[in-house]
Amino acid sequence: MSLKFAYWVPNVSGGLVISKIHQKTGWSFDDNARYAQIAEEVGFEFALLQTRFIASYGAENQLEAITLASALATVTKKINLIAAVLPGLWHPGTVAKMLSTIDQISHGRAAINVVSGWFKGEFHGYGEPWLDHDERYRRSEEFITVMRELWQQEETNFRGNFYRINGAPLKPKPISVPPVFQGGNSSAARQMASRVSDWYFMNGNTLDGFKTQIDEVKGLAAANNRTLQFGANAFVIIRDTEEEARQVLRDIIASSDPEAVEGFRSQVQFAGKASPEREGMWANSDYQDLVQYNDGFKTGLIGTPEGVADRIIELKRIGVDLILTGFLHYDEDIRAFGEKVIPLVRQKEAELAELPVS
Ligand SMILES: Cc1cc2nc3c(=O)[nH]c(=O)nc-3n(C[C@H](O)[C@H](O)[C@H](O)COP(=O)(O)O)c2cc1C
What we know:
This protein is α/β, with parallel strands linked by helices. The chain has one domain (4-350): Luciferase-like domain (TIM Barrel, Alpha-Beta Barrel), CATH 3.20.20.30. Helix content is 44%, strand content 15%. It has twelve helices and twelve strands. The chain has helices at 29-41, 65-73, 92-106, 120-125, 133-152, 187-196, 207-223, 242-254, 258-267, 287-291, 305-317, 330-354; strands spanning 4-9, 46-49, 80-85, 110-114, 156-159, 164-168, 180-182, 199-202, 229-235, 237-238, 302-303, 322-326. The longest helix has 25 residues, at 330-354. Bound molecules: flavin mononucleotide. It comes from Paenibacillus plantiphilus. Keywords: Flavoprotein, FMN, Monooxygenase, Oxidoreductase. One of its GO terms (molecular function) is monooxygenase activity.
């Protein structure tokens, strides 16, 4: 199957890096309408909207993901819109209803990213209890189960530890059941993905780091008679030469905002590091990794279009199904990626398909 491409919608201010470097990236609805239209024109299949309630990593203003996805649905025709939600701050019945509404508006393009949370300050600020790491995943699993039942069944009855649903209908149903993505890379996240998610999103990583997760989650899913797909995050810098691209990365790091990066580091101690295994997102990230707040530099999509396309093919070979991209200058970079890299990847995928199976 051909690789899918997604991009991070910059629905928060400050761009995708914690840096004071000049960025041509807006966060308003008008900017995002333009980016989504360019993205679908040049071959992206998915747009991912993040959920954020309180400024972190310099994201001073944040547009809410579901509301913005709904608006983007009306100005686009093809792209699938993945809105992130945080169980605990939303009820699954409300979210199921909102997503089926977006699916109607968009003629079947609604998707959801269920994120289990790392930012204690948001829960405290908005007056909701903050659960232990693995407890948050138990709640997310119930959340996903409730949404799916509401989307698929005439009437839903559910008795869980977190949610009770009593003969609830949901009409209209979505046109097609929205795919469920999930963020989170800890052991609890991997197990939840194997049981209930359609897609497992990974923070930026090395080839080995991605492969270990893909192999483990595939194995766990097989034991549950399931299959799922894998998305890998990457911050993309393409320039005419490898050296120019590397220089942009050095400039981003040189202009990084140490106070904001250190603030972010102290907030993310409640992610992977707080799990019983002390593994998962940001558990081993260093200062430079954190400047792209989803470890996107680690994936290595930095270089010439040819070099970046080759690296993407390596990711495909180890089992990645989707590349989630972020950029410095959205005003230029989405189009450049779509025009210079995606066609090369398609060409290389066709060559791969022609190779004899050994
Ligand atoms: C691609 C991706 C997107 C994510 N989006 C968000 C988001 O929008 N908001 C958020 O609070 N967390 C987001 N997360 C983080 C998740 O909340 C995750 O569950 C949390 O960091 C705990 O990770 P852990 O399971 O590795 O401990 C995202 C993670 C990934 C990989």
